[in-house]
Sequence to fold (186 residues):
Amino acid sequence: MEELTRTWWVYLVRGACAILFGLLAILWPGITVFALVVVFGVYAIVNGVFALLGSRERGSRTWMIAYGVLSVLAGVAALVWPGITALALLFLIAAWAVVVGVAEIMAGIRLRKATTGEWAFILSGVLAVLFGVLLFVWPATGALAVVWLIGTMAIVYGVALVALAFRVRALHSRRAGPAGAAPTVA
Fold:
């Protein structure tokens, strides 16, 4: 448990990146496919790297390592092939969201034994899977709708991760006791 609480800041950084990514997507809806590919690629790499960093401190790391590696690979693929079509990008993002969602649902289920804040992981995972499935079902909804969906998903996902970060941080603070307090000797 102590290992998990020491990495609370990783969730905060991932959440802030997701919120920033979502805001940029919503504020500039006329973004080109190339710019979206670059922004998505960088975000997926950063998100994956921080997921890998956070996985070093957990007891059961398999899902987070798989999530981190797949996120980095999705980001690299997007950057290596920037001429990707809008439909291919849409399916890449949809597949990435489903994989991320399943990984986070699994991580949340495993966290139930350690903390009460697992709902944030499970919620972000369910939202990611739902988002991915919707993109697979309605691929021709239009570039603007996709940008707004991506932005909204990223913001909600980021807020859930920020909530998780502060919940885990509070748990760490309770375990550590008041700052500067000397331990009592009985």
